[in-house]
Amino acid sequence: MRFSEIKTHLSKFRVGIAGAGGLGSNCAVALARSGVGTLVIADFDVLEEQNLNRQYYFTDQIGLMKTVALKENIAHINPEVFVIIHQKKLNRKNIAEIFSGCNIIVEAFDKAAMKEMLIETIHKKMPGIPVVVGSGMAGWGKTNDIIFRKIDDTLYVCGDEYSEASDNLPTIAPRVGIVANMQANVVIELLMNIK
Amino acid sequence: MKILLNNREEEFVKDSISVNEMLFLKKFSFKMRIIKINGILIPKEKYDTTFIHDSDNVQMLYLMSGG
Asked: Interface pTM (ipTM) of the complex?
């Protein structure tokens, strides 16, 4: 299949991205380059200098809302992508509304409790919509420990499922980027399977 | 009873155990996780009242902070 055909197919879909940090920004950029039609990105944070060790932003964007900065970066990469941004903290009440109409949702939070909340909420309020989770990517090396697992048709996980981020084991660009791009790869595989 | 735990067969002496008992018996230590029994997500407040039975398919995924 030629890229022009892949792009045409992907342009019909809408993907939700919950969080615009290390996972969300890198995953969104990969999906935008591939030609996914619409991205719905939700985040409440402002870009800080320390985020640049892994997140897809630039020094002159420090101080901007991450959603605004990411929309700007995607427009520079592929202006054909329609980007909808929500500057909100996601919770059990607003998730279904914010991501309504999305074919797939990418879990791209930092905190484990938020990851759990998102998965529970989507399973309950948006049954049947697949969630692609990132779990376990702190530190460096251990490249072959990062894997993809399908739990079932609505739940997929990318990561090593054991490397928890902490002050002494920070998240750094390579492993976060690997997981974010794995998530994007799973999204594209699922979308390409929709006839 | 025999169950499938993350696609591997596991045997328990009792005929049924609660989710919390299973976590204790298997010495699973991580705090944040998603558990599905036969495809149904079990919220953590129901780990004591939800029971696992023979030939159930239990899927567990660990949630680590970082992203």
From this structure: 0.92
